[in-house]
């Protein structure tokens, strides 16, 4: 395993843990400050969980890239495909949260 793949896997693990922490223990006041006009008080916790889930998806995308690069070298098109899937999943989760939990 080369150092670059190892660092990518370590950083991905930290991002996943931050997303889980954000979903479980994140302060809802952060949502209130950013989206004060759109999130009702009873849905603040749910919306925060959605944001934390989106951050975890980005971490999973980074983890997949690190593991794939560790196993065998990736072509540029394969890297872009994995990144595109991660970004699309992130956007889908955030858009779902906005549609479901905002007024």
TrEMBL record:
Keywords: Membrane, Transmembrane, Transmembrane helix. The chain crosses the membrane at residues 6-26, 47-70, 76-97. It comes from the Bacteria. This is DUF3784 domain-containing protein. It comes from Blautia producta ATCC 27340 = DSM 2950.
